[in-house]
């Protein structure tokens, strides 16, 4: 594509800001349209309600952000974010038992969302090439079925409407994007949509971590076991940038959710292991309970439309949003921004450029989509309105294979390495079907099953727990 003169990004969230940074490399001018005021410090805002809940940025996404903004990882870590090496710095009860803490392979950045967003946004806007139209609401797209030429917006305070012209519009307006509606107003056929909804809900509180336990203590993760064929309950205790623990309890449909302060600890006791409850029972809660019921996997297929208008692409949650338990949304958005960058750099024929860009962006959300959706269909009560044949056919055989892998990964270092590469979106999901991996599944040495969380005596001392209180897991193991 010839380089755009003016690019407009709809939405100034995580995906929108990364897309704006990419556009700033190629377009003469870039405008971000955002309904909120974007805070000039780490602060919650209305348009990012998920920001009150646990977020991890996987290494694949962190590397892309670093390549777009060199030095930003160091900035985050210096300001207090945690780099959690998988699985050395993490104690996890997986569906198949306690995970051995193998040497580091991939990592995740852990900190609050307002902190992450602000540092990244600050770096992006410091470049001085991007204009942000805050308190400005997107109304609809301007153009026709062959080309989008801009966007109509409304000033939230004055109510004044205006048309902004652009030769490339990027929809990054999140799960609530009205793209399908906007395109049907331009007489385009509906974009196909798949939804897989396990009824995920999150309940989150922040606690003061015990002295010394913010740095020297691992992140904790207690997962449900889908093989029990009952609604799933999960819990995590993740260190944050300011010496606190963010504790999120989450559930699939039918498993209830603690919605008040009184219910939080008792609910934590109902997880498959009491570790989360034991950790929070003696520390001070600093916030009330925040709730989110936004967690369905939802994906659009714009690349399937016979005709896709020039001058338009969609990415981030507006294109594909996932069950947040897998922690893939921000990394998928980063991968989409990188795909957009590659396409703009490659250039090529003007006609069909937006279609090519969209195909490249859509391709990189396929792995996180199928990983989350194919797992979620296993939960009882999951609702599905999806045509993806990988979700509707051969589910039993697929699940049996993924159970075999999960069982092996908790006890085999080599298998765990490959699985961690895939889960972190560093390696493609197809790696799990490679002959190299299949031979690892048969050959690698397997360690004994762990019967209690793999915490060292020093770590237990930091949180005042004894090994004897930690044995035993509810339900199936192995
Ligand atoms: C509870 C929860 C936990 C999560 N945990 C993780 C995690 O651990 N790791 C991870 O990678 N991902 C996680 N996610 C997903 C992650 O939050 C999203 O993938 C990510 O924020 C998507 O960014 P986005 O920019 O596409 O959308 P959003 O963050 O929703 O941004 C959209 C922006 O568009 C603006 N906007 C919307 N409509 C308009 C309009 N009409 N006019 C003007 N502006 C508009 C909004 O104000 C907002 O700023 C989680 C999600 C949830 C719900």
UniProtKB/TrEMBL annotation:
State one molecular function term (GO). FAD binding
Q: What's the superkingdom here?
A: Bacteria
Q: Where is the FAD-binding domain?
A: 8-347
Pfam families, per the entry: FAD_binding_3
Name of the protein in question: 2-polyprenyl-6-methoxyphenol hydroxylase-like FAD-dependent oxidoreductase
Q: Which InterPro entries match?
A: FAD-bd, FAD/NAD-bd_sf
